[in-house]
């Protein structure tokens, strides 16, 4: 990081390689769809320009993901202006890997559907904290909310999910 | 398994295609000529570099999405070229109606506002933390700490002239004035007429309402 800020732009390439996949995952989970690669590229360029405002010692990942989240929102907004008829990618438009055995495919489909139908703030907090597996602090940075808000919304989101799911996990 | 662990498993099993192979190369190409935003002192150097890029036309004209590479930061003002000009006519700068004294403005803003000697005492003075607006008949001079958020985004579509006398920029055509908040959201304020923007000692100056460039530059030089 110090090298990048010292003006060594090539060193930035290492950061790009390191964080590209999680950036793309975030963009796709938040609804960028086919624009995900553009969002990621745009975000890395914006992040580079804004490195001056990056606090030394802070974590790069959540800071970058926040830019990705904002960028995705911009894309979604300009897209909805452009055309309503186009086939649009929605948040959490993802394919599930049938080979994951920890939780059955059927159950995962059910969960995905339940998360997708949450109100936006709840969906966002569940997406960041669990689907992307960020910690509470990182989630707060990405969404730009105070940590307490993350905690309470997460709690309420889980409650909603439990209510909306056909069978509770304990009964399975 | 608890619900949160199930959700984590769900997230892990969501298939996301690998990132575009050319990503790193594309990013590095685009940032190669862009200096990292640094402190204001350093920004003077980046100023010149960006200006040279602009003059050399080194940046190819890409589609809308890539305009970020052409942004030009002038203190707290960012200039961003767009394909076409605003469709509505520029409106006159809003009159400064506040009646603070210069001392009160200094206390509110946190810095001492500079005055253009040629215009005499301002008819109106307004201030918010980090910003002072001074008004004369039809003329508006704003001064703000370059790092204040929100910053202005000017969308210009024709030419942007460097003004070596004050190391600033002259927006000679009507352009959209947009405010950007800390979350990066843009809000269109209005269409502005010719404006001179320059930075001195960490403060960004926006002079609007003087249609003649030579006169505007003269005012800027006489501001202290």
Would you kindly provide a written description of the structure presented here, covering whatever features stand out?
The complex is a heterodimer of chains A (172) and B (224). Chain A is an all-alpha fold. Chain A folds into 2 domains: 93 residues, RNA polymerase sigma factor, region 2, helix turn helix motif (Rna Polymerase Sigma Factor, Chain: A); 78 residues, Winged helix-like DNA-binding domain superfamily/Winged helix DNA-binding domain (Arc Repressor Mutant, subunit A). Helix content of chain A is 65%, strand content 1%. Chain A has 8 helices and 1 strand. In chain A, α2 packs across α3. The relative contact order of chain A is 0.11. Chain B has 224 residues and is α+β, with helices and mostly antiparallel strands. Chain B has a domain of 143 residues. Helix content of chain B is 24%, strand content 30%. Chain B has 5 helices and 13 strands. In chain B, the strands form 2 sheets. A 7-stranded antiparallel β-sheet of chain B has the order 4-5-6-13-12-9-8, covered by helices on one side. In chain B, strands 2-3-7-10-11 form a 5-stranded mixed β-sheet. The relative contact order of chain B is 0.14. About 15% of the residues of chain B have low confidence. The chains are: A mainly alpha (172), B alpha+beta (224). The interface between A and B is large, with 58 and 39 residues. Chain A: One of its GO terms (biological process) is response to stress. Chain A: It comes from Kribbella steppae. Chain A: Keywords: DNA-binding, Sigma factor, Transcription, Transcription regulation. Chain A: This is RNA polymerase sigma factor. Chain A: Belongs to the sigma-70 factor family. ECF subfamily.
């Amino acid at each position: 990081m110090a090298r990048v800020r010292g003006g060594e732009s090539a060193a930035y390439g290492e950061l790009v390689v390191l964080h590209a996949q999680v950036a793309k995952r975030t963009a796709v989970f938040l609804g960028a769809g086919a624009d995900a690669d553009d969002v990621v590229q745009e975000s890395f360029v914006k992040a580079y320009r804004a490195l001056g405002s990056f606090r030394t010692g802070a974590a790069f990942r959540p800071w970058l993901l926040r830019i990705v989240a904002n960028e995705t929102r911009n894309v979604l907004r300009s897209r909805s202006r452009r055309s309503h008829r186009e086939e649009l990618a929605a948040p959490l438009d993802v394919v599930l890997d049938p080979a994951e055995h920890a939780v059955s495919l059927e159950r995962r489909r059910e969960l995905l559907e339940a998360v997708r139908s949450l109100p936006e703030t709840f969906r966002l907090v569940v997406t960041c904290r669990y689907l992307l597996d960020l910690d509470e602090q990182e989630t707060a940075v990405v969404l730009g909310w105070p940590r307490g808000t993350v905690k309470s919304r997460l709690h309420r989101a889980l409650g909603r999910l439990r209510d909306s799911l056909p069978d509770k996990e304990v009964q399975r | 398994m608890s619900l949160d662990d199930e959700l984590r498993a769900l997230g892990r099993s969501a298939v996301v295609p690998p990132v575009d192979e050319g990503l790193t190369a594309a990013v590095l190409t685009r940032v190669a000529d862009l200096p990292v935003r640094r402190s204001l002192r350093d920004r003077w150097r980046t100023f010149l570099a960006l200006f040279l890029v602009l003059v050399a036309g080194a940046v190819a004209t890409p589609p809308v999405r890539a305009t970020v590479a052409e942004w030009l930061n002038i203190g707290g003002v960012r200039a961003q070229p767009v394909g076409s000009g605003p469709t509505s006519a520029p409106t006159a700068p809003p009159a400064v109606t506040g009646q603070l004294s210069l001392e009160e403005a200094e206390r509110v803003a946190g810095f001492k506002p500079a005055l253009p000697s040629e215009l005499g005492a301002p008819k109106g003075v307004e201030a918010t933390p980090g910003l002072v607006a001074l008004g004369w008949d039809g003329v508006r001079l704003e001064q703000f700490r370059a790092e204040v958020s929100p910053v202005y985004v000017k969308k210009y579509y024709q030419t942007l002239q460097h003004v070596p006398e004050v190391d600033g920029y002259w927006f000679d055509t009507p352009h959209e004035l947009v405010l950007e908040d800390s979350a990066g959201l843009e809000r269109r304020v209005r269409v502005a007429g010719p404006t001179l923007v320059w930075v001195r000692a960490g403060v960004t100056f926006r002079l609007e309402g003087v249609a003649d460039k030579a006169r505007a530059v003269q005012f800027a030089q006489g501001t202290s």
